[in-house]
Structures are given as C-alpha cells and as structure tokens.
Amino acid sequence: MSKNNSEYLINRKDNQYEVVIGLEVHAQVTSESKLFSSSATKFGAEPNTQVSLVDAAFPGMLPVINEFCVKQAIKTGIGLNAKINKRSVFDRKNYFYADLPQGYQISQFKDPIVGAGRVILDMPDGQKEIGIERLHLEQDAGKSIHDLDPQSTFVDLNRSGVALMEIVSKPDLRSPDEVSTYIKKLRSIMRYLGTCDGNMQEGSLRADVNVSVRLKGSKEFGTRCEIKNVNSIKFMQMAIEYEANRQVDLIEEGKSINQETRLFDTKKNETRSMRSKEDAHDYRYFPDPDLLPLEVSDEFVNTIKSDIPELPDDKKRRFIDEFKLTPYEATILVSDIDTAKYFEEVLAKMGKNKDIKLAVNWITGELFAVLNNKNLEISDSPVGAKNLAILVNLIKNGTISGKIAKTVFELMIDGDKDPQKIVEEKGLKQQSDPKALEAIIDKIINDNREKAVEYKQGKEKLFGFFVGQAMKASGGKANPKLINEILKKKL
Amino acid sequence: MSDITKQSLSELVENIKSKKLSSSEVTKAFVERSEKSKELNAYITEDYANAVNKAKKFDEKPNLDLKLPGIPMAVKDLFCTKDLRTTAGSKILNNFVPTYESTVTQNIWNEGAILMGKLNCDEFAMGSSNETSFFGNVQNPIDKNLVPGGSSGGSSSAVAAQLTPITIGTDTGGSIRQPASFTGTVGLKPTYGSCSRYGIVAFASSLDQAGPMAQNVKDCALLQEVISTYDDKDSTSIDFKRNEYSKELTKDIKGKKVGIPKEYRVDGMPKEIEDLWKKGIEYAKDCGAEIIDISLPHTNYALPTYYIVAPAEASSNLARYDGVKYGFRAKGENLIDMYEKTRSEGFGAEVQRRIMIGTYVLSSGYYDAYYLKAQKVRKLIKNDFDEAFKKVDAILTPSTPSSAFKIGEKKDDPVSMYLNDIFTVPVNLAGLPGLSIPAGHDAKGYPLGLQIIGKAFDEQNILNISYAMEEKINFKNKINDWWIK
C-alpha cells in the first residue's frame, strides 16, 4: 500500500539496505486489581504495600484469574481487528530471579487469548497495514532496586502479578517513523478502549524491538537481534537506528550477525549484547496446573463487542464524511481520544449553524499551542470545550474579529472564563454599526487627503493603510469586512 | 475414662454430644497419649497447651450442633495453619509460620475440632516411607523399625496408634492410601477438585488432593463431609453437589457391579497380596456385589507417566523456595550462589532428585518426548477408567504390592520405592476417588489393604462398598503399644 518515495534505507558504497522491525509491546492492563490476585495496582504506591500472599508466592497460595483482565484483553483484541480465541491456556515460564517470587511467570505460550489481527497506520505517503500476530495475557514481575544500597538489592513486589498484554506484531515495520506511528496507534486504540492508559513514563507501555536488515529487494529475512525493554518512542527510534547501522556495518565487513538479545544504553546511545542465543534461558514452558484452560463463550465475546466504542479509524472516517474535514485534520483530531472528545464537545456546544472549520483551526492552532507551552494534556485544558465553542461562535456571528478573539482567548486561559463576559466587560465587541464606521472613515480620509488622492491615481497598496488607520481609530474593534466595504465606496 | 483414645471418632462425637465426655477430657487423653508416644516421632510440631486451652474454652460454651464438637485432631504438616509452624517436612520451611489457614483445615475448625499439632510426612510429600522427612523417620505402631508408609506417614502412624482420633493427609500418588494400608487404617483420596488445595503446600498441582484418614469407614465419611467444599480460591475446585456422606452411608450394596482389572496382577506380586485380593472379591460377593472382570490396558504405563508428570510440576512448584522471601536462606557470594546454597542445603536428596527429573523432562528438546508424551498417556489411562466405568460401579484392587517394610530397607533404591505406588498412582492420574480399607494380615502379622476405586464424584458409592465390606472383613489391628514404656 505504501508508496516508495519516503522509504527508509541505509546506504553504503554500493548497497542499499532495508530495515525489518517487529515489536513485542507490553501494555499494562487498566484494572483495579492484578491478573491473579485482588491486590491493588496503583502506580507510585509505597514499596511492597500492594502485595498479597499470592503475589509473594507463599506456600499453598493459588492464582485465580481476574475476569475483568480477560475482558480487557478481548476488548483490545477486537480493537486490533483480531481473532478472539475461545480457548486459551496459561503456561508457566520458569526462571529464577529475586523479583519473580513464584520462580515462574504465568503467561500464555502456545494458546494465546487473541490471534492474528491488524492495525492501519496513517503515514505521510498513505496508509500502511501492520499485521498483529497475537496478543496474550501475562503477569508482570516485581522490581529489583540496585541503587539504594552498595551491598544489597531491594525488591518491590507492587508490580508483581500486575496484568500485562503482550502484543506481538508481524515483522511488517520498515522504519523508525513507522515504529513511532505504530506505537502511537496502538496507544490510541487502547486509550479509546480504556484497556491501557499508555503511560510510557510509568512503564504502562514498553516494548522489545526485533531488528534485522537485508539488501533492498531481498525476500529473505536477515538474522535478527532483540532489543529488550525500551520504554520510550524516542529511544526505540534511536535504538533501531543504531542497531540497523551496526548490523549493516557487520555485513559490509563480511561478518555475520549473531542472533542475540541486546540492551539499549540510553546514555551512550548504543545497543549492547546481553546474551547470545546459546545462552538463552530454557524457560521450560508448560501449562499451569493451578489454572484450567480459559474458555470464553460466544455470548461473553459478543457482550464485550457490543460495548466497543467508536475507534480512531471509524471516527476519522466519520469526521471526514460528516464534518467535511480533510484527512489530515481528521487524523490529528482522532489520534488521541481526549482530543476527539474535546472536539466533539465543542461542536455540540456550538449548536446549529456552526463553523466547523473555524473550530478545527482554533483547536489545532491556538489551543494546541497553549497546551504545548504549558505542557498540558487536553484533558487538563485551561480552556474548556464549552467556552471555546462560545468563542468560535462569537467570531462566526461577527461579534468579535479573529484578531480580538486572540486577545479574548489569552484572557480565557486564566480560570476558563466565559468569553462573552470578557467581551462585555472589556468592551471588545466589534463595531458593526455602518454609520459609526462611516464617521470614522470620513475623518480618516479627511485627515489624509493626499494619500487618498494617490490611491485614486492607482497606488492601490495604500488601501491597507486606510484599513489600518480605521482599525486603530476603532480600538481594533471595527468589523473588518464592513471597513473594507465602506472604504471601497468612499475612496 | 481410661479408654477414651480407643474410641472411634463417631463414638467420641456421640459421647461429647450426649455430655458423657467433655472436650477437655478427650483432648487431655489424646495429648497424654501423644506425649507418651514420642518414640513414634509422629509429630513435627506439638501444640498441646493451646489444644487443652481451646478444649476448655469449648466446654465453657459448647456448640453441640457442630459435626466435630471439641474433637482434638493433629494434621499432616503440609496444611498451612495460621500462627503454627508449617514445614512440609523440609528444612527449607523449618522456620515458616503461615499467617493464613488452608481451606480444608479451616473447614475442620469451623465444625468445632481443635488442632493438637502437625504430623510428620515425607519432605514435600515426596516419599513412600516417611524416610525423606527432615524431621526423621516415623515408626509404624504395628512393629518397631517398620515404616508407616508415606508420604502421610505421621498421619497414618498417629491414627493407628490412637494419638489422634482422626486426621487428614494428602495424596498425590498414593500418599493417603499406601500409609493407611501399611498401618491397618482407612484412607480416602477424594476426586480431584473435591477438596480445596488452597493453603496446602503444593507438590504436583494436577494430582494433589487432601483426604481423611481414620480408624473406620464411618469416621472417614464424616470427615470427608466436613473437608469437601467448593472453594473459589482454588481454580481447580469443582462445584458439584456433595453428599452428606456419613448420613447417607449404607451397607446395602446389593447389585453393585465391582470390576476386577486383570492388569493389576503384576509380575512378582507376593502370593499374600494375590490371596488378599481373592478374599476381597469373596467379601464383596458376600455383600451382594456382582463381580465383573475388566481391563485397564494402560496400567503398565501409569507409574512412568506419574514419575514424569509429578516431578515436572514439582520442579516448578518448588521454585519459590529460593531463600528470598521466607524460609531457610544460606549465605552466598551473590544471588545465584545464594540460590544454589539455599536449595542444596535446604532440600533433601529425594526432593533434589525429583526437581532434577522434572527440570529435565520439561527442558526444550525433551519436553515432547517426556512431558507431552506423558500427558497423552495420562489421557489414555483416564479413558481406560471411563470405559471400565461404563460396565462397573467400582473397581477393587490391592492397595499396595506388599505390606510395610523395614526402615532403611528401600532407602537407597528409589525405583523399588516408587513401585510401592503402582496400584494407587493410576487413580491420581485419572483424578478419581480411591479408598483403602484394611483387609487382612500377612504372615508377619502386618496389615494389608484393599483399594476401592470409584467414578469421579462418587465418593458415596465407594464409602458404601467399603462400609459393607468392613463389616464382613472385621479387621482387628494388632498393636501392643510397644513404644510406651
């Protein structure tokens, strides 16, 4: 589907290399309690305050599946246009680590809850489909803290047992930009669904990145390396860029690439070998005998289906059809659920006879600028949807000019003030009385006779001068449209 | 009343309910006898003072509507008991005191019973003679230096020696039925999913099941009635309609079809066992049962299958004992070194052997050949039983291929030790209920047991058959209190 004009290639003397990327995204399920226990999952709690006997793997403790997490996974699967497997199995992935109390992680290995699906990316040169291989549920581990004490490691089990969805893509991604768009799209879909908050700073979304390279046009995949646990889009892009170049250099030098797991060093901006394929853990996966296979009925899945909100792709289509937005505008407005919500709320508050384009421009222009400057999410916008709608309507019905509106907007930011009131209190209402404006203009023409003559002789540039003078004389409040009309008549 | 400890559970309950005996009298009697019986080494942890106090409290305000009113009881040390040390017979849990109670024991206390202490067992229930316990051998009250069976060896010894009127064990491959058979007592392994596994130290999750051990079938039925409840804390617990086993108990088994599986006639089976089995068939006939020859063709593969499945699950279940969170920890240079030292010093040889077997059969490259194959065979074994139960209501076999052996006799021969479970293991693999009743003695005067296997959830039926046969067999245990000076 994608056109080739923005292809990401790595160039060497005689060769061009294509980069092949697949992602394993770990998304924390939005849920009050953990996957197999009733402990809380709040971020930032005091260490080891959200730990049950099950999470700490006390003798005789047994896991019991949290039905809500299962629903969340199925919901996400539906959002990824994926096959929902009515029977899935929880397996044990066995390895020893201090922050893994059971000595195994409960995960889904052979039979995941969600099978193949797809995600559509809006790239500058068109749409691209990325295949989803599977989504499975698993437990998170605890956290080892190595830097609190020179001798000891501390362990915080608050995360132990928290539900994660691992979303595995097909190796369909070809550039750092596609990876960025893909992650943002996944995040967007999950936020629409309410299944993952997508907060990368809090670790709710992180990814293992599989990178390989091959000569452009080759059909074979190269040997891949897996970069573990990258927790920001920027780092993912940097890691891919570094890793792809490293692999190309090896090939150019006639060396081979070792299949291995690597770590991205964010300080040095490079990837480092963590362990080779030979040293890979033998996880001894086997079905967890404490849990029966997970079976869901058609009815169960259908109930969840009926609860799926409008997702970004559908919303975008609707925005284009219903509101006549450009695809570009629609993409921006649907990318984040809160932005889309804000936009639709503004439209609703604007009532009939609304100027949708004007609203779009104000949201993506002035409002986004303020949010950017203040580093705020739209959900914390200092200007609410209702007041922005009023402001846009004031422009549309000629009460204030676009220029005055900017002044009003500045005043609205502090405390989400009603623009109508600001206009009244500050006397910013546009002068649209033709007689009053005629009086102003007559005076200006009188005071600038020479320039008026020049204009009449053909110096048309001077028209702007007269408009400016008239605006100035009205204190910026004159209706620009009327001024133009009157000036044309009088000059 | 000097003969309190000789009374059965049912008699004690009756006497307490009719106020002929107080809980204190009963509790003191069993505590006294337990104290005089230290040589049996049946207890790992004694809680006598608390038991006597609880009995006193019970008597102050006795609730006689309960099923086990003020009855003292010691339980296998695999059940987690709140505020009382729970070791699973292992050094690695030597200092472990749970803050929680297993569902099965909670059910027992809810019916008025009083905990006397924790009974010895093979380490993590891995053994058939109680010789793998970190806390030492247990003596069989039948004879000095005789094993009481295992893994519930402390339990079988304590019931046979009347240190506790009744007890509970756990059975993964025969750990209730084999020790019951070795001590002349009754032991029931319920259907998988009948009793909650919550709070029981896990050995092999897909096989583990708690069950009652008693002096007679009626007591066994009463305790099964108490411990079997649906529990949403155990995902493998099954919500089925449970009988009031003791109330519905009947000796009328006329017309019941009892199957005799030809494959249980194993090579080298002692003649005594063969004879016992024949006698058992006659008893069943006498009770009005119809005897039918059946075939369980995959019986031969049960033991090897069990010794793949059980260690595989155990190797993973025991990974949590790593010295990090609770239990024994050895000092190490670093994390890996600490793990290695903790687990080398904390686990005994048999447990280590099974962890290694389990780790091996789950390893990539071996998984398909061992674990996966074993799961397939397990299915076939279950199918065998399903087929057989289309024709019969129950199956009668010997409980064990021999009577109890001497301490040390098989200690260095694990395969010979594993063969002890040959008749009991298929029942666990198929998830069925199985019950061992004492049915006779061998030439040495040691007890021998018969096993009655039932359909899933059909505990009532095998209890009834056992109840009927018990009367005909009229077994008397030959115990002379040799350990009491």
Which labels suit this protein?
heterodimer, A: 491 residues, alpha+beta, Arc Repressor Mutant, subunit A, three-stranded antiparallel β-sheet, elongated, B: 485 residues, alpha/beta, Amidase signature (AS) enzymes, 15 helices, 36% helix, globular
Can you describe this structure in just a few lines?
The complex is a heterodimer of chains A (491) and B (485). Chain A is of the alpha+beta class.
Main structural class of chain B: alpha/beta
Per CATH, the architecture of chain B is Alpha-Beta Complex
What would CATH call the class of chain B?
A: Alpha Beta
- Strands of the biggest beta sheet of chain B: in what spatial order? 4-6-5-10-11-9-7-8
Q: What's the end-to-end separation of chain B, in Å? A: 21 Å
Please report the number of helical segments of chain B. 15
Low-confidence stretches of chain A: none
Overall structural class of chain A, as computed from helix and strand content, comes to alpha+beta
Look at the structure and give the mean pLDDT of chain B: 97
CATH superfamily of chain B: Amidase signature (AS) domain
Into which percent range does the helicity of residues of chain B fall? 25-40%
Helix content of chain A: 25-40%
User: Can you count the helices of chain A?
Assistant: 15
Which term fits the overall shape of chain A? elongated
